[in-house]
Amino acid sequence: MKHSKKLLAVCSAVFLTMPAMAQKSATESIDEYREMLADGNPADLFEMKGEELWKKPRGPKNASLEQCDLGKGPGVFKGAFVELPRYFSDTDKVQDLESRLLTCMETLQGIDAAETAKTPFGKGEMANVTALATWISAESQGMVFNLSQEHPKEKAFYEVGKRLFFQRGGPHDFACSSCHGEEGKRIRLQDLPILSTNPGDGVGFAAWPAYRVSNGQMWGMQQRLNDCYRQQRFPYPGFASDATVALASYLGVNAKGAKSTAPMIKR
User: Fold this and answer.
1) What 3-state DSSP class applies to 58?
2) Is residue 35 a part of any domain in this protein?
């Protein structure tokens, strides 16, 4: 009886420590898994497609995107990713990379931007936008984020994005900050970075576009934000809407000084 009680006490102690042990080993396993896949990141294939699409004459105008202005002058793509979203005078709008690509595809190639924005993720021209964004982001890998806040609309989009980040609503009264506003939170055994500060946002915003191993898909930031709204049980935002660009502005400004790691590989 004495031995039975001692055995029970030992088993109870082990059982109580198992969750912490399991969480730690799971986190380490995920990190190791990413490291193993890093050298063969499937995003490389999307990069190749994106570079090809940039140079290939397409659309009703049979033109390439080589004169697309991403904010650093026509045709300049290196370093553009780490300065987006930003204000563009030709559209009088603050645009992120994906919404700016829609503008270039329409003006240079004649590909209807509104029609593309309505296309499901991973299909048709929407898949091409993701591939282009993957390649362009890769060309700025290792560069430091430094989004402009000089234009009044850039400042306004940051403030709107901040309010959206902390806005609670939906059937579960969720906000972006519900998952990404406090230390020590995790989901599916993964740590959740704080996206309202840096360096936390250098882990979040700075990593997208990213290849999702769980579904074998390449996701841009627009799709990442779209899925966050889905998890909050909010209505889906429109692709390249002011709301998603404002959120990206908030996250991007918060990532100032962080190095871009996109395109990353994710769970």
Assistant:
1) strand
2) no
How far is it between the farthest Cα atoms of the chain? 87
The string of pLDDT tens digits covering residues 165-207 is 998 877 777 777 767 666 666 565 566 777 777 765 567 788 8
What is the token pair recorded at 67? 């004169």
Which structural domain range is residue 128 located in?
Answer: 43-266
SS3 14: helix
Q: Does 18 fall in a domain?
A: no
| 33 in a structural domain | no
Overall pTM > 0.85: no
> Residue 132 is part of a domain; what is its CATH number?
1.10.760.10
**Would you state the structure tokens that stand for residue 265, as one six-digit string?**
């590989």
Number of domains in the chain: 1
Name the DSSP class of 186: E
Kindly state whether residue 6 falls inside one of the protein's structural domains: no
Phi, then psi, of 81 in degrees rounded to 5 = -60, -40
- Over the stretch 94-131, which tens digit does the pLDDT of each residue have? 999 999 999 999 999 999 999 999 999 999 999 999 99
Q: Could you give the residue numbers annotated as active site? A: 228
